[in-house]
Write a structure and sequence with these properties.
single chain, about 375 residues, alpha+beta, seven-stranded antiparallel β-sheet, five-stranded antiparallel β-sheet, 8 helices
């Protein structure tokens, strides 16, 4: 059974959102876009007027263009000195969320930027989908796995603003452990109505060039006295791409005599590098040795028959290797290897096998996706 609101998860996104808030946000963005368009177009026209005036030697046009620029500068200085009216930030509320998918990118510090796709399930409204990016400590990443439950903070008036609570209270931790949340459909995805920085820049550039072009057209008779010029629009090259099923494999070696994948944090960083190479987090096999990590995959395999690279508890693997080297009867282990493969059966997590080899022979132990040992085969035991 899903949490509160899951029965309505399939409703349209308009039911999930807050229409008055979205309308106010859309109006605010529209007014800002119009203001930016007008200012950019006037600025472009004023600068073009200065250039045109110099070419055609027209003093009034030069003075007009310069005067408009001065007025724009004065308006900008006055507007910059005005203190914006302080608005109270919307109050956040706590809810549970299902982790649909996550993708970590490499970072320079212990906090790694992770992109999440979540189904947020508030207690008092239908569930909805959202995409966020948040920095998560390397040690805490194993706690977040696809189809897992996390505690989040969301804003009822701005539902696209969601933050994962990395240290929830004991009550919410218990609720997260017991909860089951169904995935909300993609139609419930909410996004911020604000334009991205790239969109603002494109709007500014387009309006600026449009203003300059309009001014040049107004004085085309004085500028171009030799008749019309022919121009041909260049046709942009077309490109096509096709996606086909593929199998892939890649590996990397940790260099340096004193460097080992057992060093804290090295396994996860190496896994991130391999994920970037194959451009997917879902693989069918992972092999880890002292100085080498390799992955293999098949794009035709369903997600349930793959292993998610970032969901593995790499920070616990060195302890498993230590346990295998000291408790399975191999007194002088020469080598070790970790093999991670998809689990068998519906809902089964990945299987982790640690193999050690020495003079006495080969032994191994098996563990689940949380690092808990599930089976041992010491030297001399069959199976």
């Amino acid at each position: 059974m899903g949490t509160t609101g899951q029965g309505q998860a399939g409703q349209d996104v308009d039911e999930v959102d807050v229409p008055p808030v979205r309308r106010r946000s859309a109006v605010r963005v529209l007014l800002a876009a119009l203001r930016l368009t007008v200012v950019s177009a006037v600025t472009g026209g004023a600068l073009a007027a200065l250039v045109v005036a110099v070419i055609i030697k027209d003093v009034p046009v030069f003075l007009t263009g310069g005067g408009v620029l001065v007025v724009l500068i004065l308006i900008g200085v006055v507007a910059g000195r005005r203190s914006p009216a302080g608005e109270e930030p919307p109050a956040g509320r706590i809810a549970l969320a299902r982790i649909e998918d996550l993708r970590a990118t490499s970072g320079e510090s212990a906090d790694v930027p992770v992109k999440f796709r979540l189904t947020v399930a508030p207690d008092d409204r239908p569930a909805y989908r959202v995409k966020i990016e948040q920095h998560i400590n390397l040690v805490d990443i194993p706690a977040y796995r696809p189809r897992g439950i996390a505690v989040v903070e969301y804003h009822p008036d701005e539902p696209w603003k969601v933050r994962i609570v990395t240290r929830p209270t004991a009550e919410w931790s218990r609720r997260a452990e017991d909860a089951e949340i169904d995935s909300a459909p993609e139609s419930t995805l909410v996004v911020s109505p604000d334009m991205s920085e790239g969109s603002w820049c494109m709007l500014t550039l387009f309006a600026f060039l449009a203003g300059a072009a309009l001014l040049v057209l107004l004085f085309r008779g004085e500028l171009f006295t030799s008749g019309d010029g022919d121009g041909a629009a260049a046709k942009p090259p077309s490109s096509s791409s096709s996606s086909t099923s593929r199998t892939f494999s890649t590996s990397t070696t940790v260099s340096g005599p004193s460097t080992s994948l057992l060093t804290f944090g090295v396994m996860r960083v190496t896994a991130m590098e391999l994920e970037a190479r194959v451009d997917t987090a879902y693989v069918t096999e992972i092999t880890i040795e002292d100085h080498r990590m390799a992955v293999r995959g098949d794009s035709t395999r369903p997600v349930s028959e793959t292993v998610h690279l970032q969901s593995l508890p790499y920070e616990l693997f060195p302890g498993l290797v230590r346990e295998a080297r000291t408790t399975l009867g191999v007194r002088d282990p020469r080598s070790w290897r970790i093999d991670v493969t998809p689990g068998s059966g519906a809902g089964a997590g990945p299987r982790v096998r640690v193999t050690v080899t020495g003079k006495e022979g080969t032994a191994h132990l098996d563990a689940d996706a949380t690092g808990r040992v599930t089976d041992r085969r010491a030297v001399g035991e069959s199976g």
